[in-house]
Amino acid sequence: KLAAIAALAAAACTKAPDDQNYEPDGTLKRQGEVTLLASMENFSTKAVMPSSGYGIWKSGDEIAVRLDDGSFVNFALSGTGDTIRAFFKGEIPQGRTLGDCAIYPASAINPANDGLVSANIPSEISDATFQGIMVASIGDSWEICFRHTLSCVSLTLSNFPPVGASIHLSEEGRSLSGDFVFEPSEVALVGITAPVGEGTLDYRLPKSSSKLNLNFFLPVAEYRNLYVEIFDKDGRSISCQPVLQAAFIAERASMKSL
Q1: Of all helices (H) and strands (E), which one includes residue 185?
Q2: Cα 252 to the chain's mean position, in Å?
């Protein structure tokens, strides 16, 4: 499966025109100090991308790299960020060997049993605090490409009340946040699916506006009863209304405008 993911990633992670001539030399080490050159899959929308349509790594980014025993070690971005591709460097503990995958962001994941991984989709979010979960396979090359595992929903709210301070997004019978257990090679192909549950998303607004354009990352699922509830700064509910006029399927690495 990981070999198939690597082939798909090579096609999905195309370079931006300005990046075509940037071809650093490097070899993959599996022990000691290791450097990986990471890019990310192009989303089918520019809503969470710069105007170029390509993903950008940011200063402070960290990825979690799996080792041969199933544990993870964090690799930090080397440099200032704001680049289409970025170097991530880390130290493989003595006696351990580089494994087969990496996950972004490092802060979201915990090892689980039998080769599975537990990743957390936080319930409280903002534009800056959560940009989705991505998975990359590690083969024989030091170059890796991260693939999106969630779907992006762009929500436009007109005539937003001036006292509105936060938004509560929920789907009847499905969990939108919490801990999700998965096998990395599978979610790189089909995405993280929304299980039965009650996990919601709470969006804290930095400032109020009469018209809001917000981006949410949702697990893969068919959504039929998506609701938005608006709260004031004291946590009092102002309104609650359905978002959808018809059911829609949230697909991995895709975008839906509501």
Answers
A1: helix 184-190
A2: 10
The type of residue at 220 is V
Written as one string, the DSSP assignment of 107-153 is GGEEE-STT-EEEEE-SEE-TTT----EEEE--SSSEEEEEE-SEEE
Give the whole-angstrom CA distance, residue 190 versus residue 158: 33
pTM of the model: 0.85
Cα Rg of the chain (Å, integer)? 19
Distance CA 195, CA 174 (A): 6
Distance between terminal CA atoms of the chain?
34
Peptide linkage before 105 cis (omega within 30 of 0): yes
Q: Residue 8 CB: number of other CB atoms within 10 A?
A: 16
For residue 141, the number of C-alpha atoms closer than 13 Å in the C-beta half-sphere is 16
Determine the Cα–Cα distance for residues 255 and 153; give it in Å rounded to an integer: 6
C-alpha angle 209-152-237 in degrees, rounded to nearest 5: 40
Q: What is the pLDDT of residues 10-39, one digit of tens each?
A: 445 655 545 545 566 678 999 999 999 999
For 24-44, give one letter per residue: b (16+ CB within 10 A) or e: eeeebeeeeebbbbbbbbbbe
The answer to whether 160 and 211 have CB atoms below 8 angstroms apart is yes
pLDDT per residue over 32-85, tens digit each? 999 999 998 876 654 444 444 457 898 899 999 999 999 999 999 998 878 888
